[in-house]
Design goal:
With 91 residues, this protein is an alpha+beta fold. It is built from two helices and five strands; from the N terminus they run E-H-E-E-H-E-E. The protein has a five-stranded mixed β-sheet, with helices on one face. It is globular. The model has no long low-confidence stretch (mean pLDDT 97).
């Protein structure tokens, strides 16, 4: 098991990034969450099989078609408390 916290910057709000990540993470069997940040970035916690986490992190570098990812910061993290992948409120 592996867990990563991501902060994604660029044109990532108002372009369907959270919904895209929600579907992508669930399709890969990951647990965690995604949320918008007040500074215009998107933050996510991804947890699951190392290969699946790595694949989703790489996909996050591109994002959905309308997004433009300028920067992705990645750090190791503790896994989430519960199962499933959720959308969290803006923080």
């Amino acid at each position: 098991m592996s867990a990563r916290r991501l902060r994604i910057r660029g044109r990532v709000q108002g372009v369907g990034y959270r919904d895209w990540l929600l579907g992508t993470a669930r399709a890969h069997g990951l647990a965690g969450w995604v949320r918008n940040r007040l500074d215009g970035s998107v933050e996510a916690l991804l947890s699951g099989d190392e290969d699946a986490v790595r694949e989703v992190v790489n996909a996050c570098r591109r994002g959905p078609p309308l997004a433009r990812v300028d920067e992705l910061d990645e750090s190791f993290a503790d896994p989430p408390d519960g199962p499933g992948f959720l959308r969290q409120p803006t923080a």
